[in-house]
Amino acid sequence: MHLKPSQFSIPSLFLPLFLLYTSIQGTLATDASLEFLDPTLPPALPSQTPKCSVLVLHQDFAGTVSGSSPVTTNYTHPGDCPAPWTRVVLELSFSVSGVHVQKDRVAAVWIDGAEILRTSTPFTINPGAFWKVHKDITRYTSLLRRLSGGRGTVSMMLENSDSDSDSDSNPPGVLTADVSLHFYRGALSDKSIYTAHPSVKGLYREPADLVVPISQEKASNGSSFWFQIGGNSDMPTASVVIPTNAYRAVLEIFASYHADDEFWYANPLQSEYPQGGLREGRANGGLRQLYATIDGKFVGGHIPFAVIYPGSINPYLWSPVAAIGAFDMPTYDLEVTPFLGLLVDGQPHEIGLGVKHSQSYWLLTANLHLWVDRWTDAVEAMLVDYRAPPLRVNPHAEWRDQEGSSEIDAEGLLRFIGWVSSSKGNVTTMVRQKVTFKSQVVVQNRGTVRQVEVVNKEAMTVGAHRGKNQVVGRLQLFMDAPLQVQMSIVNAAGGAVLQNTRLYHQLEEVLNLNDNMAVSTSILTDRQDAEGTVLMHDGMPVWGGGSTKSSYKYRDENTCYLRTVDAAGGAVKNDVTSPSCSLVSTA
Ligand SMILES: *[C@@H]1O[C@H](CO)[C@@H](O)[C@H](O)[C@H]1NC(C)=O
Ligand SMILES: *[C@@H]1O[C@H](CO)[C@@H](O)[C@H](O)[C@H]1NC(C)=O
Ligand SMILES: *[C@@H]1O[C@H](CO)[C@@H](O)[C@H](O)[C@H]1NC(C)=O
């Protein structure tokens, strides 16, 4: 993170200690500019030149905290770059200017009110920091077609303050964002490499014909499209009318967590737990479930992947390499085709979004991806099997003063079956999901040593067949997202806390796909091991360091892509990419 001592506004009470540490450690690196990166997916940008690239939005964000509206622009598409496109990539470039601390923020991009990217920004005090986010947005082709037809807007939101509200005397930091779209036509030279998560590849062979935003209509008082979820029982809804000839439907949920739930994944279970190094202070356990409803009926959910924000745990661990998913936050797909029978009557229906076990607050939106049958005016559809018991949750906690442990086990099994009769025949879709979850928090040594361990596994099957047993397609997705954090703290003078952390987390997705008898398998393994030290004061890091090893591996029948990045002391030490995994020895 290149926290340069000279650039900090140091709380005066803290100064003597700060100087002490500075003199012990000497000065940190003082690069004038620093690129932050998220070494996750294979490069989304194909090596060839796009047919056209459009700079959609250029904006300086400063002093836009709370209540600001998203920035919106009208879009103009070049005439010589018509649909269809083989791939469309969103590029978001950021740079930081000004001299003040930039805390990590959440930001998003929308097309006509449908969210297409949720991202978080690095925690930085480096005025020369910059970074880029690339996302394959081909799955939003229907929105892009409307946009290119001259009827659409692109919006972006970033709540950026100029650091703490008490710092009137400091000039504001500015985050400058440029949003571009790159459109590709023709065969892509490197098309065997998928640039979206395997789950997206599996469910989205062909992009949907329609993408309907499930979001807050832009409120007149200037809030954004996000629904704000204040807690467990909060479930905002949006009213939608869907075409009567829709034959397939997938609901994609975007989520980020804030305030009391910013560290939900490390939460112990107990109501009066003393404040500690993780700054949680709220203790309702580390289990959350994102879910959706149709007219009040639960239609599926996911335990979210714990994206660690760039300012979380120890900001030095995420400088300059972001935590898994921080720059392109994962979205969660629910296959809701079995429920089309509830939706295709041409009437308005209420789609609800919520987070079970949550505290204030989460920001959610969703996109309803719909495939429509152009040869039919109205499909017939019916839900025939519905098994959706709530997660079986088993909590256990034992605390004595500042020491103890808590554990939450959860298991769930869902099954939905429904048929849709269209010009493609009478196709029955079966969705089955099994989740296994465990969160364990152990605190020892009078609250100064803590361990967090999370097991988060999901097995999901979506099968479609016609008639008795003619298989149309089948996908199986296995997700495994473990997290381990070990932390010890030492209380220092002036209320400061010196914190040592080791962390390991991973996102693995294994996809088996049988699509019209063509069978394929792909495996994605994204892993990070990090350790470091940070001195925190008033919730702000004032000194520290860390090292992070990242390894991203994607393998299918044709490809093996591996990228390993080692970062230490605020700089990348080693960054090796291999298009065939054998060239690099795995970490
Ligand atoms: C905007 O209006 C909504 C609905 O009336 C309200 O819940 C929200 O707090 C308001 N936001 C602001 C920033 O005033
Ligand atoms: C976008 O287009 C609308 C309708 O044509 C117009 O009212 C609005 O002023 C335009 N906005 C910008 C930023 O040009
Ligand atoms: C579609 O198939 C299901 C199960 O095979 C059957 O119960 C239903 O009546 C069929 N629907 C139509 C419109 O044929």
TrEMBL record:
Q: What is the protein's given name?
A: Peptide-N4-(N-acetyl-beta-glucosaminyl)asparagine amidase A
Residue ranges constituting the Peptide N-acetyl-beta-D-glucosaminyl asparaginase amidase A N-terminal domain according to the UniProt record: 47-387
Question: Which UniProt keyword terms apply here?
Answer: Signal
Per the record, the coiled-coil ranges are none
Annotated Pfam families = PNGaseA (PF12222)
Organism, scientific name: Cocos nucifera
Signal peptide annotation: 1-29
